[in-house]
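Hey L., structure's done. Input below.
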Amino acid sequence: MQNDLELNLMFDALIESPYMAYVIVDKHGYITMMNQTYLDLLELKKEEVIGKHILEVTPQSKLPEVLKTGKINKADIWPIMGRDTIVTRLPIVKNDAIVGAIGQSLFLEMSSVQILLKKLQETFNTMSDALVQSPHMIYVIVNKDGYITFMNQTYLDMLEKRIEDVIDKHIHEITPKSRLPEVIETGQIHEVDLWEVNGQDTIITRAPIIRDGEIVGAIGQSLFLDMSGAKLLVNRLQEVEKELYLYKEEVRQIYKAKWHFNDLIGQSMEFSLVKSIAHQLSITTSTLLITGESGTGKELFAQAIHNASNREHCPFVRINCAALPESLLESELFGYEEGAFSGARKGGKPGKFELAKGGTIFLDEIGDMPLNMQTKMLTVLQERVIERVGGTRPIPINVRVIAATNRDLEELVKQQLFREDLYYRLNVVRLSIPPLRKRMEDIPLLIHTLIKRINCTLGADTKGISDLALDLLKKYSWPGNVRELENLLERAVNLAGFDSEDILEIEHFPSLSHIDKQPARKNPSDHNLNKAIEGLEKDMIISTLMLTNNNKAQAAQLMGLNKSVLYRKLKKYDLMDFKTN
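Output:
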């Protein structure tokens, strides 16, 4: 996971390089990504290109050809707003199918070559003989008057000369058309140039040698001895870029929102209204607070809103504010710098806000966030910048914040357990998800959809549910909401499969068997909470023992309990002699 996150950041740095223009399209040719360098060259904004067909933005693009043929294009000279660049194009293949294509500049105005030559100037005095005597590179150095001070053996062999024939000779005596004197005079780095040596085309670069601010000579060298070297580099870059992109896609799946509005099942008036409001909220970037009881589907709504927004191609990052101790929550949200604390990873680590760049961060259980972190979160929401733990550099963030809670924040504010100013900052737009007991007419539709989903997960073939069992489920108050319904249905499908039955009956819901034998329940708030929890726990143990044919070790494993803990609970609920027959 750590390596994946490091790769994610490295890939982001690559595509946002100021020396490289970069565009990605999906299998239909619609743009899914374009880096800022390319946007700046086209003088466009991201929202003006994302989702547009590539031919609308660059009418002469050859990416549709790559999508059609599946072939990797060779390096090509491609003008971008009057600037010639070296461009490569390749298809994106996943599971043997073309899912998109990439187009990128190998060099943007030869900046990469210039950087290379400047590095050569800095390290010239310590340059190894192995480099200058490479059989794949020709090399010549002249002093400030244009007289040759060095020429490598590869160049000498091409010129059919000996070293004593060229040293201390003026460069024009050996190569009359040399442009090295021009480099000495102007001090400019020459762009990559085609140069003929004894009838063989080579790719040449030239640069002045500067010491103490003065030009003391010039270097001429081949970037490649012939065009085959360029082709080898392009092929290797294409292979590496393809591999990087595949890794990037794998990492991106971790932070991808799965649910869409079509996945939110319900036709009741209250649910349909909430769903409609949520759809409208997807077009805004305002901070959103989603409230509702546990199990109502708050995260599903958050994911659907993200997927319906213009941020859908960017990450959806979730963090549970109640699941992490206060000491870890800050570093998880904001990241940390190297050496920030004992055990901090070398090079530091990005936080969730950085990983959500351009997308959505979902702060689940925000009502359980410690007060100290609430203060820092308020600053982030107001200033739109973060600072890593142990860092001093503010990092701008571009994310939409969606928070969710099943707690009464107004009451927490009154109890001074939640900051009032943070509450108002979060409560810019609010969405309240109704509990299942307030939309009981949706139960048949939910059951039908959930059984299909469970069948796919378990490889089962349950056809449906009997009328008697459906009536039983309609009489239940569902304190755990849709999540509880799904869990009970999955348990019932397992029990039905164990009995080789394809219709769910009343006996497949043993934890609800008491409903018809007892008076109708009053409002759940009228009951003692501990007794209600114990009742649910006992019912779950009974149904799991039935599912495992009274195999207590297997039952403990299914419920995520230590075997000794299960035995204590069996004794507590007088189930030590429980029989499944």
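The domain at 261-432 is CATH 3.40.50.300 (Rossmann fold). The mean pLDDT is 81.

-- N.
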